[in-house]
Amino acid sequence: MPRTWGGRGLSLRGWANRAAREYPARLAMTVFAAVITVIWLLLLTPWATASGRGASVVDALFTATSAVCVTGLVVQDTATYWSEFGHVVILVGIKVGGLGVMTLASLLGLAVSRRLGLTQKLLTASETKTERLGEVGALLRTIIITATSIELCISLLLFPRFLALGDQAGTAAWHALFYGVSSFNNAGFVPTEHGLLPFASDWFVLVPIALGVFIGSLGFPVILNVLTNRRRHKHWVRALSLHTKLTVTTSLALLVGGAILIGAMEWTNPATFGGQGFATKILSSIFASVMPRSGGFSSVPVDEMSQETWLVTDALMFVGGGSASTAGGIKVTTFAVMLLAILAEARGDADTEVFGRRIPRDTLRLSIAVVFMGATAVLVSCLALLRLTDLRLSEALFEVISAYATVGLSTGITATLPDGAKYVLCALMFVGRVGVISLLGALALRDRRRIVRFPEERPIIG
Amino acid sequence: MPRTWGGRGLSLRGWANRAAREYPARLAMTVFAAVITVIWLLLLTPWATASGRGASVVDALFTATSAVCVTGLVVQDTATYWSEFGHVVILVGIKVGGLGVMTLASLLGLAVSRRLGLTQKLLTASETKTERLGEVGALLRTIIITATSIELCISLLLFPRFLALGDQAGTAAWHALFYGVSSFNNAGFVPTEHGLLPFASDWFVLVPIALGVFIGSLGFPVILNVLTNRRRHKHWVRALSLHTKLTVTTSLALLVGGAILIGAMEWTNPATFGGQGFATKILSSIFASVMPRSGGFSSVPVDEMSQETWLVTDALMFVGGGSASTAGGIKVTTFAVMLLAILAEARGDADTEVFGRRIPRDTLRLSIAVVFMGATAVLVSCLALLRLTDLRLSEALFEVISAYATVGLSTGITATLPDGAKYVLCALMFVGRVGVISLLGALALRDRRRIVRFPEERPIIG
Ligand SMILES: [K+]
Ligand SMILES: [K+]
């Protein structure tokens, strides 16, 4: 087996490597469009729906896009509308989409870093030479094995609980597997009716799922960096890469800050946290703060939350998760780099520094591009949604940011949208998922330098 | 006279110069707080109100802050609630506030540029040595004379029209003067009942006011650069500074883009443009697109516009006008620099270039700081408003951005706000007006350099 893989891998590796290096944007878009099309066609078959009558073209497309882009927005209730075959198709879409994101992002990382002459650095973003992952084949294998292992761990934590709650062994195993894959891939799809609402006070269900979402949202480079460092370094925490340290600390800070804000605002809301006990309120706050990054599960009804909570969730969703993860948004490192630049500006430091490292200046321009294009996509889609529907801004904005950042939380309006609005959200999910990967690949590879430089002149800012 | 001025000016100049150099944030905040307090106390007197019963503490504070910060949000109808004395107080507040912004911004510019060893450059942001304005006294005089001249021109354009419409000579002159000052200072206060709604199709009223707002929103460095260049250069357009070119082109682009978008969205709305003739619709579109930058007048009822128009207006208001102008927002150059950086990134250029000039890299970090702090101020205030009222997000966001960017447009909710929300908006107007000036001053003066540099390490972005 290894030999066959190695043999086929050589040419596959060569092709993937060349494609990633020469037309990364087209590669990412083609792969995702192709996978979405296959899932779409499968979901259009009559066997995919529970009723056997077949889904509408737009509903099948929306569900396929939502699954492959690991978003989790649904126009039809996953548990009741789709058949068992439909559920398997959706789960395959999630698994392939999740792997696609992690793989393509890492591949592009490799291609970019190689071109910049930093071959080993990008994946680990570290100057230590401990992680050599030069080969595409090895990278793919590592991602598949690591991801699947973590998914299985989550599933194994959930399985006994579902059994204890009275499920049949087969059903319990299927639900545990589905939630394991759906959580680690930050997909947000739920195989059970009413999603996680019946489990709102069940620590044994919510904690594994929150853990899966959080670990998945850190991104593959972080997971790999932690795993290899633990094995190879005595002081493994200190030896972690800057990227890992930034991602983990920012994610934790946003988690705690979000939980405090959301908890404070929903504490006495009778429709959400109000009727819960103290411990459950804490659990609900943490769960509601993890999910915008970008798991998309909810343990209390989002539509009953206050507009303030929606706004805080909007902000958390827009920031999203870690780079090269299945999470969406502008990514926590982008957010962190901008914050650090502002701090350095306020202190009057010439360099932007953190954890004893200096952040390269060109990183900032890339951050601005990512944030600006994200904000533009959200604004334009929001205008389109307001134009096509009678929604209020708070609902439209929430839905749009959720689609862009592939979160999947919703105020409950998705199913009621007209077809035009569904297509807008499909496009936005695709852009949010594939756009940023393509963008980064395309940007990093077109590195033309000028010989003649213009004289410098400073406009007034602010 | 010149001698006396020169004699007193020496010490005044010395003090202003030193204050601006050594504690610019405190200087700006103190000046504004002091002026607001005086106007507030004057508005609290019974003579300031038409009824003679005196305004409430919070209403007087809100109106004083709105006038001095040249915002134009009102909790009481300006024309009917305040007396003639009240109107004069408000107009003085506008004039002093407007001059304060232009002067302080320019002073800080001088102090900063002197410190950076670019003395003559900042005001004109040009490498030509034609504009020497080293002296604070001369600068102040130039600003006062230029501003007052432009205001009088606008007033002279309006006066015959108001006469023709049947006003008494005294009333016509007063209204013309008020609109002249209010428009050039981007104040948005209206001395006539129902504001400009009765003039919705009157080109002779709306065009001078739009012109005053537009010129005022360009900022003093731009106006001065144009005026002096016209006198001194043969090819004066080409010789304009980068700052001037960037400000004018971005302002015009936003004006045209905004007019097309708003026009398209309101074209058939019976409550706004729907009932107007073709030419008036064009006028209304242009007027509605100039006003977010940040005049704050409206020729059609804002509360009847669609949510989409509100959202486009939100975006235009947030961008605001030119640096060192009476306009608010993040400023058009900040916006332009970020756009140019993204374009350069997309092209793979190492330098960010425009109009044959290279934009310094540290400009970008400053831009991020300005945008990020603006967005944070808006987000936090929006949360507060949603918490304190039953407003919808679309209304709260519009009101908050209008206050932050000192625009003064409103969906009509200002007067109905509870006192707590009024105080939040007061604070936001102050921050939007003084915060950015102080921020820039404070930032630019703390320029500590490190001798030990940390090693560089690149996190993954996006
Ligand atoms: K999701
Ligand atoms: K204004």
UniProtKB/TrEMBL annotation, chains A, B:
The keyword Transmembrane helix applies. It is found in: Cell membrane. It is a multi-pass membrane protein. One of its GO terms (biological process) is metal ion transport. The chain crosses the membrane at residues 23-44, 88-112, 138-159, 203-226, 246-265, 315-343, 364-386, 421-445. GO terms for cellular component: plasma membrane. The keyword Transmembrane helix applies. Keywords: Cell membrane, Ion transport, Membrane, Transmembrane, Transmembrane helix, Transport. InterPro entries: Cat_transpt (IPR003445). GO terms for molecular function: monoatomic cation transmembrane transporter activity. PANTHER family: KTR SYSTEM POTASSIUM UPTAKE PROTEIN B, TRK SYSTEM POTASSIUM UPTAKE PROTEIN TRKG-RELATED. This is Potassium uptake protein, TrkH family.
